Recover the amino acids of this structure.
């Protein structure tokens, strides 16, 4: 399979207008109310327009129908006014419901083009389908069994087909359609483009792809909503100076045995590792300055339960896959919602529930609100006894009131001396925390 250079290019695409789609398609998308492409559409459409084969790992609901239908329509538009229609594209699906759904999407997206498509599936009259095929179509959306029936018994010829989609390939293989799929693909033109989509890229899907696809580009997207729904979210407000102590306290008091902790910098990773080890919590870190063998060793020890905490930067954590990882901690808040989703997606895998803990200082609140908005999540900010917040009290009242008065040109209030809030000293707080930790 080829590198994902092409797939990465999709990150730069923001609007449908920046993809080379004709006005008729863009107009239909506006009428559909689509403002911007979804992740799978951004990544897949440019690759398909280049004519490359694709394996797309995407669940339903990610917008994958438009991801393959739009480039297909774009490629068919040049022949739309030919007097005789020639069959160019077959879309294979596992169920008749999906065939109907895709057929409806094609009708919508092609409403300003002269492109004809037919639905071919079992349980309805063969004859009507045959009549439609005889009149000439550009695209067939079909279930494998009924399509084969048309080929074997009604002489349907697929040799002109140069685009083929295998949608929900994993489901089709599970339903036992491997022979049908193989035989259908072997009947289409040798100069063809194949697009295979599957919720998961199983061994069988890989095998099928290896047999029929030509150096496919692999495109993967996650359904962010789906990921975050499987996870319990907890957020603690904490002063920046107290974060390390709070993490030690949480691990000890809740008796967590395996945590993946994300930080934003290499320096922070080193400092935090040292702190946790001093507190008796066995930890290692992985980041860009740590050599590959040492990273692999840290991963191995973490997986084997020989260390309790693995601290990682985002880049070093790529590809970490521990099926039953119970807890992920955002020690520092990531800069983007995508990073947040990738981090927390390390837990709650393979249908298991997971837990995500975010430590927030007052300066993170705004960014945290953005992330929650993006993910349609509401996470309460909690406080822990012994870790009372002082940073918040510093900021809010005094500074803002003065600047407002200044803006209005009012007389400035006399500056009052700053009095530290009457809270426990840092030392007492840490001792308190450790006492609780030992009790548990
Ligand atoms: P999938 O094929 O992954 O199951 P669909 O293509 O059916 O997903 O899309 C799911 C829903 O999202 C549909 O209602 C579709 O109209 C809508 N949709 C798809 N792409 C976009 C987009 N770019 N903007 C807004 N809505 C979209």
């Amino acid at each position: 399979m080829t590198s994902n250079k092409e797939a990465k290019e999709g990150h730069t695409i923001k609007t449908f207008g920046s993809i080379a789609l004709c006005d008729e398609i863009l107009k239909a998308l506006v009428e559909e109310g689509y403002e911007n492409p979804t992740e799978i559409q951004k990544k897949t459409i440019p690759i398909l327009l280049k004519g490359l084969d694709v394996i797309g790992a995407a669940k339903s609901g990610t917008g994958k129908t438009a991801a393959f239908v739009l480039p297909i329509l774009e490629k068919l538009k040049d022949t739309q006014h030919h007097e005789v229609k020639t069959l160019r594209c077959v879309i294979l699906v596992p169920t008749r419901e999906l065939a109907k759904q895709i057929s409806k999407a094609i009708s919508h997206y092609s409403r300003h083009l002269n492109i004809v498509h037919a639905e071919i599936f079992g349980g309805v009259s063969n004859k009507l389908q045959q009549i439609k095929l005889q009149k000439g179509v550009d695209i067939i959306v079909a279930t494998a069994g009924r399509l084969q029936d048309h080929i074997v018994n009604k002489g349907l010829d697929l040799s002109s087909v140069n685009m083929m989609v295998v949608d929900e390939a994993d489901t089709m293989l599970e339903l036992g359609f491997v022979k049908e799929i193989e035989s259908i693909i072997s009947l289409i033109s040798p100069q063809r483009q194949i697009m295979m989509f599957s919720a998961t890229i199983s061994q069988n899907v890989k095998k099928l792809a290896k047999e029929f696809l030509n150096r496919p580009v692999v495109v993967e997207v996650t359904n962010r909503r789906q990921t975050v729904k499987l996870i319990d979210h907890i957020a603690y407000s904490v002063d920046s100076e107290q974060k390390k102590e709070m993490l030690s306290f949480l691990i000890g008091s809740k008796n967590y045995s395996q945590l993946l902790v994300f930080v934003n910098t290499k320096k922070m990773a080193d400092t935090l590792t040292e702190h946790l080890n001093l507190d008796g919590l066995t930890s290692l870190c992985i980041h860009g300055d740590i050599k590959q063998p040492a990273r692999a060793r840290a991963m191995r020890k973490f997986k084997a339960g020989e260390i309790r905490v693995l601290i990682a930067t985002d880049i070093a954590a790529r590809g970490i896959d521990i099926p039953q990882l119970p807890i992920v901690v955002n020690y520092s808040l990531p800069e983007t919602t995508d990073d947040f989703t990738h981090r927390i997606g390390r837990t709650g895998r393979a249908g298991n529930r997971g837990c995500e803990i975010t430590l927030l200082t007052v300066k993170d609140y705004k960014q945290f609100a953005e992330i929650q908005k993006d993910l349609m999540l509401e996470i309460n900010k909690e406080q822990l006894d012994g870790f009372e917040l002082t940073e918040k009290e510093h900021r809010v009242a005094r500074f803002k009131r003065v600047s407002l008065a200044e803006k209005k040109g009012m007389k400035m209030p006399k500056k009052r001396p700053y009095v530290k809030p009457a809270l426990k000293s840092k030392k007492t707080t840490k001792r308190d925390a450790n006492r609780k930790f030992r009790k548990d």
Remarks:
- The CA atoms of residues 8 and 165 lie 22 Å apart.
- The radius of gyration is 28 Å.
- The domain at 4-220 is CATH 3.40.50.300 (Rossmann fold).
- The chain has two domains: 4-220, 231-382.
